[in-house]
C-alpha cells in the first residue's frame, strides 16, 4: 500500500496525499479555498479553540492514544454492551438440564387452579368469575415458559480469573465478576429445586448491583462452586484432600420458638389479615357463601355496641394476620442455626434456615469488621433488636427483606449481645461496655428542634385555616403535642453515647430506630466532621466514621469539642495524633 497514498491506512487514518505544487498568492498554507476561504489565517482560531480544551491525560487508566476514554468497570458489563468476553479456552457450560423437567411439572400444576375451578363450579361458569384461578394459571404458565427460555439462552463458565455468564431472553447480556472481588456466595433452594436435587447459587462482589445467579445446578456442584469461589487461594494452586477440608462446626445460636411472638406482632398483622379475609370472601362468593356478612352478623350478636363491635372485628382480622405471619416465619426460619465453620482454609459464619425453601449464607470471618444492633422505637420498649454483622461484601439492605448481613431473627437484646460476643472472633464484648454521655447542649438542640417544629406546624395550620383549606382552630394541635415532642427529645438525647474499648469504636444514636454499632478500629478509613448552624452555636460536632464495610458510614452526633478530639485520637491515633499537642 506504500504506492497507494489515496487508500485508508490500516489504523483507520487516511494517508496524507502529495503536497500541492504551489500555494496561491494571498492564501496561507493549508487553505484549500473551500467554502469561501478567508485571507486570515484560520489556524489561529483553531489554536484558540484548542487552548480551552482539557489536555489528554496519558496516565489515565483508560488511556488510548493519549485520550481519556470511558471504560467499563471491572466485574460488570451493561446490557447491550459490544465488549466481547475475554478470550479463554475454558468451555461454556449449560445450567443443569433437570431444570426443564422442573418447569414442565410446574407448567402442568399451573393449569390445575383453572381446571379444578371449571370442574367444580361447572363448565358454564364465566372465566371472569374465576379470576383468581385464571390469574394464578396465567402467571404460572408465563413463569414456566420464561424459565425454560432462560435455560436455553444461558451459558456460564468459571476460569482462573473470572466468573462469567451469558444470558437474556430477548437481549443478550454478558456479565463477569473477577474472582478476586467475590465477597459472598449464597446457596438457596425452593421446594421445586429441593425435590429435583437442584440449588441456586448467588455470587456477589459486594457492590450495589444484583448478584450473579446460577439457577440452577446440582447440590453437589453448588457446594463445590461455593467452596472453590470462596477459597482464599487462586484456583489451580495446591490441591487439598477432601478430608482436610471437612468443616468442623460450632453452633452459636438456634431458633427459639418464643421468637415467633417477637417477629409477628406488628401492624402488618392487620394488613395481612384484611387482605386474606377479602380474598377468602371473594373465592367463597363463587359458591354463594357470604363470609364477611356471616361474620358481621355473628359479631353484632356478641357485641351490639358499635365500639365493641369494631374492636372484635379488629381482633378477628389481627388474629388471622398473626396466623399467616406465624406460618411465614416458621417457613422461612425452620431449623435456623447460626454456625461457625472451621476449615483448613479459614473460618466462616454460616446461617442455615428454611422449611420449603432453604437458604445457606457463608460469611468469611476475615472480612468481619463489627456488629450492629437495630431497635425501632416500639421494639426498643419491648426489649427487642435486630442483629447484623458489619462485613465487606455483604448487602446491608434488600427489597426482599432477606439481608445477607442479618445473623439472627428479631430477639431480646440480652440474647443478641450474648451471640455478638461469640460472633466476634477476638471474643470482645464491646456492646456491653458503658458508653460516655453526650453534653447537655445535645439535649438543647433536640428541644430547639421540637419547639421549631411545633411553631412551624401551628403557623402552617393557621394559614391554611385562614384560606379555608382546613377548619379554623387546628393550629393549637401542634402546641398541645409539644409535651410529647419534648419527651421524644429527651429520649433521643438519652440514646446518645460512644466509647472506644478493646480495639472497637462503639456508637449509639437514633430516635425512631436506635442503632448501636461496634466497629473495629482497623476498619476505619477516615473521619468526617460536620457542623450545622445550630451545632456551631451550641459548640457541637457530628463525627462520621467511614469504612469499607456495612453501610460505609456511621455517625456519632453532637459531641463537644473535647469529646470530639478525644474520640478522634482514640479512634484513629495514626491519623489524628500527629496533629495534637499535649496540654498541661
UniProtKB/TrEMBL annotation:
Cited InterPro entries: YdbS-like_PH (IPR005182)
Segments of this protein annotated with the region Disordered: 1-90
Keyword Transmembrane helix recorded: yes
Keyword Transmembrane helix found: yes
Protein's name according to its UniProt entry: PH domain-containing protein
Transmembrane segments: 104-124, 130-149, 260-280, 311-330, 447-466, 472-493
Regions of compositional bias (Basic and acidic residues) in chain numbering: 1-10, 29-42, 75-87
Keywords: Membrane, Transmembrane, Transmembrane helix
Compositionally biased intervals (Basic residues): 43-58
Highest taxon above the source species: Bacteria
UniProt xrefs under Pfam families: bPH_2 (PF03703)
Segments forming domain YdbS-like PH: 151-228, 493-569
Amino acid at each position: 500500500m506504500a504506492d497507494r497514498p489515496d487508500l485508508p491506512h490500516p489504523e483507520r487514518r487516511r494517508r496524507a496525499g502529495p503536497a500541492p505544487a504551489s500555494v496561491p498568492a494571498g492564501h496561507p498554507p493549508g487553505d484549500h479555498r473551500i467554502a469561501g476561504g478567508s485571507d486570515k489565517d484560520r489556524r489561529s482560531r483553531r489554536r484558540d479553540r484548542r487552548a480551552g480544551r482539557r489536555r489528554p491525560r496519558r496516565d489515565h487508566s483508560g488511556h488510548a492514544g493519549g485520550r481519556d476514554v470511558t471504560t467499563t468497570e471491572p466485574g460488570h458489563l451493561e446490557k447491550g454492551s459490544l465488549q466481547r468476553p475475554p478470550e479463554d479456552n475454558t468451555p461454556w457450560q449449560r445450567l443443569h438440564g433437570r431444570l426443564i423437567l422442573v418447569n414442565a411439572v410446574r407448567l402442568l400444576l399451573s393449569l390445575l387452579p383453572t381446571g379444578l375451578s371449571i370442574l367444580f363450579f361447572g363448565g358454564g361458569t364465566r372465566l371472569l368469575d374465576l379470576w383468581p384461578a385464571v390469574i394464578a394459571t396465567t402467571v404460572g404458565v408465563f413463569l414456566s415458559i420464561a424459565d425454560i427460555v432462560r435455560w436455553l439462552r444461558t451459558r456460564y463458565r468459571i476460569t482462573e480469573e473470572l466468573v462469567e455468564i451469558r444470558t437474556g431472553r430477548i437481549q443478550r447480556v454478558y456479565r463477569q465478576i473477577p474472582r478476586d472481588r467475590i465477597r459472598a456466595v449464597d446457596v438457596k433452594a425452593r421446594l421445586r429445586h429441593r425435590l429435583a436435587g437442584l440449588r441456586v447459587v448467588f455470587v456477589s462482589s459486594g457492590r450495589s448491583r444484583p448478584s450473579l445467579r446460577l439457577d440452577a445446578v446440582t447440590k453437589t456442584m453448588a457446594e463445590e462452586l461455593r467452596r472453590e469461589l470462596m477459597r482464599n487461594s487462586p484456583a489451580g494452586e495446591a490441591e487439598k484432600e477432601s478430608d482436610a477440608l471437612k468443616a468442623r462446626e460450632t453452633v452459636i445460636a438456634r431458633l427459639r420458638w418464643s421468637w415467633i411472638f417477637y417477629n409477628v406482632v406488628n401492624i402488618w398483622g392487620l394488613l395481612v389479615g384484611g387482605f386474606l379475609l377479602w380474598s377468602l370472601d371473594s373465592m367463597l362468593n363463587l359458591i354463594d357463601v357470604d363470609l364477611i356478612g356471616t361474620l358481621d352478623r355473628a359479631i353484632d350478636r356478641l357485641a351490639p355496641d358499635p365500639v365493641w363491635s369494631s374492636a372484635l372485628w379488629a381482633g378477628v382480622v389481627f388474629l388471622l394476620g398473626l396466623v399467616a405471619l406465624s406460618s411465614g416465619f416458621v417457613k422461612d426460619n425452620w431449623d435456623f442455626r447460626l454456625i461457625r465453620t472451621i476449615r483448613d482454609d479459614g473460618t466462616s459464619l454460616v446461617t442455615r434456615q428454611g422449611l420449603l425453601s432453604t437458604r445457606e449464607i457463608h460469611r468469611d470471618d476475615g472480612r468481619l469488621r463489627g456488629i450492629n444492633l437495630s431497635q425501632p422505637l416500639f421494639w426498643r420498649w419491648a426489649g427487642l433488636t435486630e442483629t447484623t454483622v458489619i462485613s465487606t461484601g455483604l448487602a446491608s439492605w434488600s427489597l426482599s427483606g432477606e439481608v445477607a448481613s442479618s445473623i439472627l431473627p428479631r430477639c431480646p437484646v440480652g440474647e443478641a449481645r450474648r451471640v455478638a460476643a461469640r460472633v466476634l472472633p477476638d471474643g470482645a464484648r464491646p456492646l456491653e461496655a458503658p458508653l460516655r454521655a453526650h453534653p447537655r447542649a445535645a439535649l438543647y438542640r433536640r428541644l430547639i428542634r421540637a419547639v421549631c417544629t411545633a411553631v412551624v406546624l401551628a403557623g402552617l395550620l393557621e394559614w391554611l385555616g385562614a384560606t379555608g383549606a382546613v377548619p379554623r382552630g387546628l393550629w393549637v394541635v401542634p402546641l398541645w403535642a409539644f409535651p410529647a415532642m419534648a419527651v421524644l427529645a429527651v429520649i433521643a438525647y438519652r440514646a446518645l453515647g460512644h466509647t472506644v474499648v478493646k480495639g472497637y469504636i462503639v456508637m449509639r444514636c437514633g430516635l425512631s430506630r436506635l442503632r448501636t454499632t461496634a466497629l473495629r478500629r482497623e476498619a476505619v478509613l477516615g473521619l468526617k466532621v460536620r457542623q450545622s448552624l445550630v451545632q456551631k452555636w451550641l459548640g457541637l460536632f457530628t463525627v462520621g466514621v467511614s469504612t469499607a464495610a456495612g453501610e460505609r458510614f456511621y455517625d456519632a452526633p453532637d459531641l463537644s469539642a473535647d469529646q470530639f478530639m478525644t474520640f478522634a485520637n482514640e479512634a484513629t491515633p495514626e491519623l489524628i495524633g500527629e496533629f495534637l499537642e499535649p496540654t498541661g
